[in-house]
Amino acid sequence: MSAEIIDGFMIAKGYRERLALEVEKFVAEHGVRPVIRVLLVGDNPASLSYIKGKVKAAAEIGIDSEVLRYEPSITEAELLAEIERINQNPAIHGILVQLPLPKHIDEHKVGLAVDPMKDIDGFHPVNQGNSLAGNWCLESCTPKGVIALLDTIGCDLNGKKVVVIGRSNIVGKPVSVLALNRNATVTICHSRTQNLAEEARQADVLIVAIGQPKFVGADFVKPGAVVIDVGISRTAENKLVGDVDFDSVKEVAGWITPVPRGVGPMTIAMLMQNAFEAMTKQISEGAVSV
């Protein structure tokens, strides 16, 4: 019997529709709308495509977004000054710096420059540290989306065995923390893990984020497990595939995310959720007046 497909596209659509109602209710009651700025350096085609999707989602939800475009020749100091200008503007609630940046600009330094309260990507070490401590924070969007998918299918992580394959700062580590905060028992596996397939087969929930197409086969999966595929790659035939061999794994798993229409749409939905949360938090702490 094949696995149930977790349709991230439709689940994200539901999140965006509910958020749009929440935004309009807030605007009607308080007269303040979430405002975000996207900083784009250069004209990387992939970056332009990603930004287009984010701007479209913001418009649908009722979030005021604007893309601030800079020449690739902008200096690091000039970009940092632009970020600080936006940090100091109480009318702007969220900042997103689109990566990658030109080689002469230190991405880590730029990330640190963003006010953690406006860091809607959830990448700032202050936000990641607060997540680790179990405090309120703007959570990393993709990990937050993974947890939202699990919530939607009724997968309670309390007491569950979660195995995460991948240890990146963007997905692997933060999603492990979010699962741990839900009382899961978490194992993080990576390129140096011995007996990787055996470790993965212990999982009630297997989360894969390693950037290797179709790496995880049916032998990695316990029958009935929930499999979340965060990876996305393009084959020589121009087909999008994940880190999981979908066709073989769906015959073993209980639930599985496809690629595309899996985790990807949830990342943008959670970015918009973070924009709303950033605004309401800033208002509650007096950084923005209503």
Automatic annotation (TrEMBL):
Reactions listed under catalytic activity: (6R)-5,10-methylene-5,6,7,8-tetrahydrofolate + NADP(+) = (6R)-5,10-methenyltetrahydrofolate + NADPH; (6R)-5,10-methenyltetrahydrofolate + H2O = (6R)-10-formyltetrahydrofolate + H(+)
Pathway participation: One-carbon metabolism; tetrahydrofolate interconversion
The keyword Oxidoreductase belongs to this UniProt entry's keyword annotation: yes
Any single biological process term in GO: L-histidine biosynthetic process
Organism: Culicoidibacter larvae
Gene Ontology cellular component annotations, sorted alphabetically: cytosol
UniProt-annotated binding residues for NADP(+): G166, R167, S168, I232
Presence of the UniProt keyword rRNA processing in the record: no
Stored Gene3D superfamilies: Leucine Dehydrogenase, chain A, domain 1 (3.40.50.10860), NAD(P)-binding Rossmann-like Domain (3.40.50.720)
Name of the protein in its database record: Bifunctional protein FolD
Domain Tetrahydrofolate dehydrogenase/cyclohydrolase catalytic: start-end pairs: 6-121
InterPro entries: Aminoacid_DH-like_N_sf, NAD(P)-bd_dom_sf, THF_DH/CycHdrlase, THF_DH/CycHdrlase_cat_dom, THF_DH/CycHdrlase_CS, THF_DH/CycHdrlase_NAD-bd_dom
Subunit: Homodimer.
Described function: Catalyzes the oxidation of 5,10-methylenetetrahydrofolate to 5,10-methenyltetrahydrofolate and then the hydrolysis of 5,10-methenyltetrahydrofolate to 10-formyltetrahydrofolate.
Recorded family membership: Belongs to the tetrahydrofolate dehydrogenase/cyclohydrolase family.
Keywords, comma-separated and alphabetical: Amino-acid biosynthesis, Histidine biosynthesis, Hydrolase, Methionine biosynthesis, Multifunctional enzyme, NADP, One-carbon metabolism, Oxidoreductase, Purine biosynthesis
A Gene Ontology molecular function term of the record: methylenetetrahydrofolate dehydrogenase (NADP+) activity
Cited Pfam families: THF_DHG_CYH, THF_DHG_CYH_C
EC number(s) from the headed UniProt entry: 1.5.1.5, 3.5.4.9
Domain Tetrahydrofolate dehydrogenase/cyclohydrolase NAD(P)-binding: from-to ranges: 140-282
